[in-house]
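Slide 14.
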Amino acid sequence: MKDKGWEFLNEIRDFCGDAREWVFLREEPTDYSYGKIPSERSLDEAIENGVINLDKPPGPTSHEVVAWIKRLFGLKKAGHGGTLEG
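Slide 15: predicted structure.
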């Protein structure tokens, strides 16, 4: 497992406490000029291309929270992937 991608997946597996080994069906070359391992992204890249997992409190609407996030991070575009309000 010399590849950075597999190292990253193992870090996630270890963080989750999963002791199982990966099963390799086939290995393909990876061209890292098309992206980065998430842990190697700068803060700006993470904000620009990332996802915020937010547990929205009761009260503000999802649209209000998106507006706050846009203001807080100085973003032109942001959105939400749905709500599960009960």
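Speaker note: Residues 1-40 form one domain.
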